[in-house]
Fold each of these.
Amino acid sequence: MPRQKESPEKSISEKGVAKGVALLLFFAIILSTIISLTVIYHFTGNLKASAYYTLSSIFETNEEGFSTVVFSSIGMFSLPFDAVIGVLIIDGIVKYMLIGFGLAVVLELLSGVDIISKISDLTMGKMSSHIVVCGYSALAERICGDLKKNGIHFLIIDKDPEKIEDIREDGYIPVIGDFTEIDDLQKAYTQDASAIIFCGQNDYTNLLGVVSARKLSKNISIICRARSENTVTKMHRAGAEICIIPELVSGLELGQKLSGV
Amino acid sequence: MARDMEGHVIICGYGIVGAKIAEQLIENGINFVVIDIDAALVQGLKEDGHNAICGDATTSTTLREAGIANAKAIAAVLDNDAKNLFIVITARDIRKDIFIATRANDEFVREKLVEAGANHIVMPQVSASKEIMKEISRMRPK
């Protein structure tokens, strides 16, 4: 299914704006705190109490009145406190906004770390006796769905960035690379895999992949998709154990069905 | 003349799927007519002794020429989902009782083919995946 991608230029400017806004709010809270402290000190004449009120302003914004209860019961500054409650509420709102944007900046930073890739790398490193699927074609999508249903671990190699995104969106583990290259097959721990399935759209690239996989591992089971019967012999010679032409399988099924009608 | 045949199967599209269907029908001694747009391919089939028509299988004229009036089944197996859907609709319009087999490349199209009146639908990716899963189950230790 076609999927839409965010343009890199848009995401960069959005990140810049987010960071700019976060900085502005940071300075706003500093300024707001200084103003609150100054105003309260003007009424109370006590710097320590002024600091207490300023720090607790976030509760006043909720109208929970936490500090009101505490300080009124002690009988401290109840009159001047009422006079400055408006300032405290505004200060509290600014603090809430800072917390919200602070969290947004932290999330932005975390997303830049690409945690999903790191987790995928850790998961891949523990794999053995898994299956490597090469090329995320329509056939590969179907195979991956069936592998998942059967609880079989697998990785998918593809070099197309759009396919890599598709793989991630479908909840699978991608390996970015060319499945005809031994180095990229090694990234998918092909040497430890029990089987490899070539689902590329092109018989030539699938054949190259078979040759590379067999060179990398003498024991791995190689399954390959072909588009014509002429290619099947070549695939077997290159080292594929099983070669499947999807259309042929369907034709056999239909032929048997029509013979029985 | 194909038009005068009875109890035969019409194969629309002589690609890998169509050729395999023909092979199965020959093994079971069932007559068939092939419709394909490729004139050279049709000529080759005729030289091999098979009934074949060069034409567009999506048109009712071509289907009538292939003897749809008395055929027992029709296979719409072009490598084009939209054309297969067209053939299914056209065939069902002409014959309410004919058995229609076809192929689809994705689930969305498959649903449309069922709605259009197809009796049996194969999806090459599904068939291939089933075969591959059988092989994998056989290869992997229990």
Amino acid sequence: MPHLAPLTPSLSPQGKGRYRKAVAVACDLVTPYGWGVHACWQGLLSGQSAIRPLDRFSTRHFLTDKAATIPDLKAGPGESFVMNMLIPLLSKASDLGLIPDDSLLILATTTGEIDFLEQSVLRGTQGTAKESRLDCLLAKVVHWSGVVTRSKSRNMPLIVSAACVSSSAAIAQAASLIRNGEQDCLLVVACDSVSEFVMAGFSTLMALDKDMARPFDRDRKGLSLGEAAGFILLMSEERAMREERPIIGEIAGWGMTGDANHMTGPCRDGCGLALAVEKALQSASIPESAVGSISAHGTGTVYNDAMEMKAFKKAFQNRAIPTYSIKGGTGHTMGAAGLLEVIVAFQALKEKMIPPTVNMRCVDEEAKGWVFSQPHSLDGTVTVSTNSGFGGLNAALVLKEYRTEE
Amino acid sequence: MIDINGIGWITGKKYGCVVKALSRPFPQRKSIHAQLSGEGVFSYPVKNFGRFDRVSKMTCCALGLAIYDAGIIYAEGQKQDIGLLGTNEAGALSSNIAYFKDYVESGRTLARGNLFIYTLPSSPLAEAAIHFGCQGPVIYMGFQHRAIPSLLSYAKGMLLGEKVQKVLAVKADEEEALCFFLQEGGAEPPGKGFGFDTIEAIAGQASNIDQIIEGAQKAPLKIQKAPLKKKETR
């Protein structure tokens, strides 16, 4: 399909100017609950966690023996876990003709095909460790997605890696390119897998719960690792309507900040994340009073969840807003977390219901009135999705139920 | 209109700044950190610099040189609205190998946290953000080709799209690094610099960092005027 010239941007809701809306028109994912958005949604609603004892590698010396992995996911010689997640998703999308070949592809990940590096070090063949480079993974994802590489800088596929904020940052970047008229179709692909490499690191940092992560629980002790892969196709509203694409939702605003504080611990007063939320709302031209729900990062660590509650109370002036985390169910899927949470948030907006915060048994005092262990009705059409990561990185996205303007 | 008011660079055995026309050989008996601190490039010591992985050291030094070149003052504990965008050839490959090799050699029992934290491509940028107090977005981007022209293009986008006041765009590998300091034209502080288009054109034609530095050193500097202050009306 030829690349079309930018069309006139749509009128903003306030009628104050013109900006292009960035809308989601297709998505798919695989999570520890199984293949597809439906499996993930139903899994979360059930309140059952997908965090289980691991059999992929020995956990004898780690803080925990549990993580959330994709059922039956394997990787033979020359295969990586992330590609074995992505190939079926991208092949299916390709068969359905979902992905235009002029899409700009953005790949979000933290460690990609890290299993190749593990194998090469364990075998003592470190020369082959370079197969784990993210640019090698990008080339494979480009191939399987069917997008065509173009020669200009702003049309070439790229990797976005920003710790656990990676896929939120990628989605924000994609939406920004649509809003400013530089692109009208982007494919954001995200992936990360549970590996001995990562688990050993988080174990040594004492960041893992011995059992299962319990986001916002009074007695929470740490996170549980998870793995996931997926994609979301974003278009300008004009192109989506021209192609008669079903619109899943709108990426209405985004904000990213850095705490500039510490490599592994968040800024305790939540000011960095609160600023990201504020920037996102400004970007969306939406007042904080319009936000009806929050999809939190909610890892289950003492510091992250405490920081997030402080940030939310600051950003929303102590107005209690139904808030949830999915990481008690799916585990912390690292670079894929933001994408996963955006897709679930759109589903929640559609169903007018937020999922329970799985594994939360006794809500922390600071989260009372905000976070629930049962499904909760969702008012309004706007959700804020937040993520935070190593190095003090923060991202907030404003997601809206899509409505055509009258 | 976007200006590039500072360019810091480290290549082979030299380092320098373009706007200040600085070029020095690597110190023989001192560490680069000590050298740059002595020259006033670092306002205060970079905490744990000795423990940084190689790319983090290069990133921090290149950023310091670019900030110094742009005449930006920073201080410990002070935060600024500066975004960071970084790229390189190999991501965190060297750090990943170092970390996992150390873990395997210790019997796969205990990993080292101070090696693990550098196994993300964004970690060098985060370390620099902590030292320089940069509170804007911090993002690593990887490109298949034309890394520096792409970096500059996305840095410009970050400046305009994210509404940050300033952006530091750095390509830092183990042996060389180049950092650009971008801000909107007419912003404080005024000084010398280049138009974005000038440097973008140079980067587009160059095939390596040396050529970009050389091209920038030959390009005419523009003198930025201080923004006009509004007259008070009575």
